[in-house]
């Protein structure tokens, strides 16, 4: 079992930055991938970025160059640094891991005003 707790969401003006955190506990040794998803109002959940156990990362085209996913293994925490935020980044952001089944966090709201 893996438990995930997201934090760091909030309200920011366009052009601002936020850093989301996803802290894992439990059977963290079994985590192979960590993903950040978001769900905008009225839209399907979409993949934003992921990081593999080996450190490889990948990003959605809409966030490339603005968002950075990183990991602190000592803290069992994955971060999503979000810069140059746009109103269309407004969403609930979810952390998910494969360990090997999928586990999800509760989500954190990000609101970007113009």
Largest sheet: 7 strands, mixed
Helical content band: under 10%
Uncertain stretches of 5 or more adjacent residues: none
Radius of gyration: 13 Å
| Run of helices and strands | EEEEEEEEEEE
The chain-level mean pLDDT equals: 97
Describe the oligomeric state of these chains in a short phrase.
single chain
Tell me the β content: over 45%
Distance between the terminal alpha carbons, to the nearest Å?
Answer: 40 Å
Form type: globular
| Structural class assignment | mainly beta
Query: Quick one: how many beta strands?
Result: 11
Give the helix tally. 0
Give a brief description.
The protein is mainly beta. The protein has no helices and eleven strands. The strands form two sheets. Strands 2, 4, 5, 6, 9, 10 and 11 form a seven-stranded mixed β-sheet that branches. It has a four-stranded antiparallel β-sheet with strand order 1-3-8-7, with no helix packed on it.
Account of the 3D structure:
By secondary structure, the chain is mostly beta strands. It has strands at residues 2-7, 10-13, 18-26, 33-39, 46-52, 57-59, 67-72, 77-82, 91-98, 102-104, 108-113. The strands form 2 sheets. Strands 2, 4, 5, 6, 9, 10 and 11 form a 7-stranded mixed sheet that branches.
Please write out the topology.
Elements lengths: L1 E6 L2 E4 L4 E9 L6 E7 L6 E7 L4 E3 L7 E6 L4 E6 L8 E8 L3 E3 L3 E6 L1
Parallel strand pairs: 2-11
Antiparallel strand pairs: 1-3, 3-8, 4-5, 4-9, 5-6, 7-8, 9-10, 9-11
């Amino acid at each position: 079992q893996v438990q995930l707790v997201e934090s760091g969401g909030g309200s920011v003006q366009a052009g601002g930055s936020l850093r989301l955190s996803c802290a894992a506990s439990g059977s963290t040794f079994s985590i192979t991938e960590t993903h950040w998803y978001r769900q905008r109002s009225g839209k399907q959940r979409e993949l934003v970025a992921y990081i593999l156990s080996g450190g490889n990362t990948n990003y959605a085209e809409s966030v490339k160059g603005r968002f950075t996913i990183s990991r602190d293994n000592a803290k069992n925490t994955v971060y999503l640094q979000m810069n140059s935020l746009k109103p269309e980044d407004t969403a609930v952001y979810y952390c998910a891991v494969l360990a090997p089944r999928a586990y999800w966090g509760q989500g954190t709201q990000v609101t970007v005003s113009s």
